[in-house]
Input
Amino acid sequence: MSNFIHFGIAEKMYSENQNKITSLFNIKYPIIQGGMIWHSGWRLASAVSNNGGLGLIGAGSMYPDILRENIQKCKRATEQPFGVNVPMLYPNLEEIIQIILEEGVKIVFTSAGNPKTYTETLQKEGVKVAHVVSSTKFAMKCEEAGVDAIVAEGFEAGGHNGRDETTTFCLIPNVKRHISKPLIAAGGIALGSQMKAAMILGADGVQIGSRFAMTQEASSHENFKNKVISLNEGDTQLTLKELAPVRLVKNKFFHDLEKLYESGRNVEALKETLGRARAKRGMFEGDLEEGELEIGQVSALIDEILPVEQVFKNLIKEFQQSQTGFDF
Output
């Protein structure tokens, strides 16, 4: 541990008094679970919170009544802080915000929209607000909007992503020098060593998606989980920039999209092929051919489905053991 103490990284991770993220959310470790659609139900969120991180319920794949049910079950399953992730491009947004306030949720992560829309409304009710961005430009807008924390997500991330294709290694240090709010790194983080690297680059904590999606508590289909743990480098790709950029596994559906690109960038044809409920079909119902399979590049490093408790043990051990082998 001497090298960690020398560089101040151990204190940054473990001390609630010194770490901005643990202090802000009242958690043990600066580890936030991504609020992923079709993965992040109450079982996953409560398990992450019970192990010292911050669990997030993914509202993006839930009707309002289902969201309320998940919040209530999560409150019964953990006494630790947890939050809700709200993609702001989804319908029923006002109803979702009202449910969050009625149920007394005190942490909300927003994404895919203007951070000003609900930040003040939520904060007036004592809710901590973090917003997810993919560029320094939008991180600065988050700071202007008064959010409590900013998640900067690199191009490596699964699911919906930024158009600029900026990697986490480039994004985090650039965002860090332009903002003063607590900074959370996301995209391409599944190991403790990657967590340490993100914090050396300037992050105060990390948000992890793909690794938590491949846990026993995640609500996604076993077919999808088994597919992901078999992936190698290059088996995912960002596509659909004309609609909303998304990183997908290269399955039949993905290749059908590629054929459309070969014949021209016809937005209407892309919309027709995408149709409705593709993500549910792939990740929740387990259709590996016709479904939309969203996962990050870091899936190439994930080769087993683990309980959340073991993921935390691995992250902490890897964080402690990772060393550069070089010192000045």
In short: The chain has a mean pLDDT of 91. The chain is about 40% helix and 15% strand. The chain has two domains: 2-219+303-321, 231-298.
